[in-house]
Amino acid sequence: MAKKTTELKIEDALWQAADQLRGSMDASQYRNVVLGLIFLKYVSDSFNEKYESLINSDYPEDAEDRDMYTAENIFWLPKEGRWDVIAAAAKTPEIGETIDKAMEAIERENDQIKGVLPKNYASPDLDKVRLGGVIDLISNIKVGDEESRKNDVLGRVYEYFLSNFAAQEGKNGGEFYTPRSIVRTLVEMLEPYKGRIYDPAAGSGGMFVQSEEFVREHQGVISDLSVYGQEANPTTWKLAKMNLAIRGIDNDFGPHQGDTFTNDLHKGKRFDYILANPPFNLKEWGADKLQDDSRWVYGVPPEGNANYAWIEHMISKLASDGKAGFVLANGALTSANPKEEYNIRKAILEDDKIDAIVALPGQMFYSTQIPVSLWFIDMNKASSDERNRTGETLFIDARELGFMADRTHKEFTREDIAKIADTYHAYRGTNNQEYKDVAGFSKLATIDDIRESDYVLTPGRYVGLAEQVDDGEPYEEKMARLTSELSDQFKKSAELEEQIRIALKEIGYEI
Q1: CA-CA distance, 292 to 257, in Å (whole number)?
Q2: What are the beta bridge partners of residue 252?
Q3: Are 144 and 42 in contact (CB under 8 A)?
Q4: What is the DSSP letter of 303?
Q5: I need a labelling partner for 231 at 20 to 30 A (CA). Which of 64, 241, 333, 482 fits?
Q6: What one-character DSSP code corresponds to residue 469?
Q7: What are the angstrom distances between the C-alpha of 74 and each of 209, 221, 226, 247?
Q8: Is the pLDDT of residue 372 over 60?
Q9: Please, what is the angle between helix 234-246 and helix 27-55, to 10°?
Q10: How far apart are CA 3 and CA 259, in angstroms?
């Protein structure tokens, strides 16, 4: 996320006002209430801008013609769904009912968000005076007019809010939000320019938002990407639909939420790209109902941990030259117990499907301190537009990269992401750089190397230690200097210890 500058004044102001609303509401309810208001303001700004241009045209009657809006991918807002109606009711006790009616009216007129918008603003848990204050503040901020869209004001606000919610919700935050620098690393490495892209554990849809940004930045065409996803949590499913709708990203997330393992909403479909951050080490995932599932080509995953079920599910969803990038807890790199995980990992490696592993630093997630890695699957390492990498896997140890964005949370810089992605593309032969191993950072390993390591995939095992810079000081001289310095420090420590003993004795505490 961007460092806080004057650019973030809008986000800060909105966050401080919205945070007053929380009261006794459940965190996930409150999250959707706040993001629902921002959604409403965004679609209202877009609508109002078009409305004003039509009302001042030669044909003012067109201002109430639904087709004039939908033709430009602008949400059609019936009169009770417009912001001026909500703003006028801000100081009244009925403000909650007014917003609920607006949400219902907008859903009724726009099929792509039917059943998605929050409609609990009349709840007694929401302080109506504070709600009115937030409405007043939002009324003075543009998020959806042409200028705001050009500066991606909405994207900044949503990103800022989602990351703040994730930080506040702690452990549960990771269920709907993957930190931006991790998503960006996955996207920069996979480069999903066109085709079908899928996320089986979609959360709030961040993988798709970042993919869209990537395509725009590289002068691609957004319509060349088709977006598919699935999310088990009904509240998060709605958040994802809302997140994608405001950005104009067409998507197929199924008609409702659904468990990816027991209720696959995209059965039979194959995808060019998969980007995912599935729940780590999920214990109860329906294994008892899926023992004979056709997805388990490499072996039946163990009941107590879904990590390898996710891996096999994603491989089963890839097209013949499909590619996947996903986040997994580090335990999946080495697990030999239960034996099923070891056997599946060995079978996938022997089938030459694992293209790269990237070890991440700790503290990258709001939700967990568990160390994690990025896995990259390539169904065809010998495709004509890439270097033939048959029998090879790239290991990158990125644990020394990143900076502390705050007291508890680490992020990658753009330069860090470029270093990782450029190394991967050099290995794949998809940039103009020649790949070379870098001690302590990257290593191209053969399947024979991996067999010798008993199919362990920890990058540190392969990349070795970084080369140390010779400072020119002879070893004997350096050791003499260091031991002398250490001796001085020991003496100072003893003197301080004696002073503390004397001070304690003087006040009646003898050690």
Answers
A1: 24
A2: 228
A3: yes
A4: T
A5: 333
A6: P
A7: 19, 19, 20, 11
A8: yes
A9: 20
A10: 36
Rounded to whole angstroms, what are the CA distances from 127 to 81, 93, 133, 326, 364? 21, 10, 10, 41, 35
User: Where are the strands (E) in 277-405, listed by range?
Assistant: 318-329, 354-359, 372-378, 392-397, 403-404
Does pLDDT of 470 surpass 60?
Answer: no
Q: Among 311, 421, 305, which residue's Cα sits nearest to residue 370?
A: 305
Which tokens go with 389?
A: 């990498």
What the block records as the tokens of 423 is 């190394």
- The conformation of residue 176, written as its DSSP 8-state character, comes to T
How is residue 502 written in tokens? 């004397």
End-to-end CA separation in angstroms for the chain: 52
| Distance of alpha carbon 509 from alpha carbon 511, whole angstroms | 7
Copy the structure tokens of residue 406: 């705050």
Closest CA to 32 of 24, 22, 42: 22
**Kind and range of the H or E element at 275?**
strand 271-276
Cα–Cα dist 129/292, whole Å: 56
Give the Cα separation of 500 and 347 in Å (integer). Answer: 63
Each residue of 245-272: pLDDT tens digit? 877 788 899 888 999 999 999 999 999 9
Give CA–CA dist 161/173, Å, rounded: 12
- Number of Cβ atoms within 10 Å of the Cβ of 364: 23
pTM for the full model? 0.79
Range 81-107 average pLDDT: 95
**At CA 101, angle to CA 97 and CA 106, rounded to 5?**
150
For the record, the structure tokens of 391 come out as 């029998």
Residue 418's pLDDT band, with cuts at 50, 70 and 90, is very high
User: What mean pLDDT is predicted for residues 435-439?
Assistant: 96
pLDDT of residue 160: 74
Under the banding of pLDDT at 50, 70 and 90, the label for residue 156 is: low
**One-letter amino acid for residue 368 of the chain:** T
Rounded Cα–Cα distance for residues 119 and 103 (Å): 6
**Confidence grade of residue 4 (pLDDT, cut at 50, 70, 90):** very low
Tokens at residue 477, please? 């001289």
Rounded CA-CA distance 50/62 in Å is 10
What was the pLDDT predicted at 145? 80
CA angle 174-177-179, nearest 5°? 95
Asked whether 250 and 269 are in contact (CB, 8 A), the reply is: no
d(CA 416, CA 496): 43
- The secondary structure of 241-264, three-state, reads HHHHHHCCCCEECCCCCCCCCCCC
Can you read off the two tokens belonging to residue 258?
């659904």
Helix, strand, or coil (residue 167): helix
| Radius of gyration over every alpha carbon of the chain, rounded to an integer in angstroms | 27
- Three-state DSSP class for residue 268: coil
- 8 Å CB contact between 32 and 235: yes
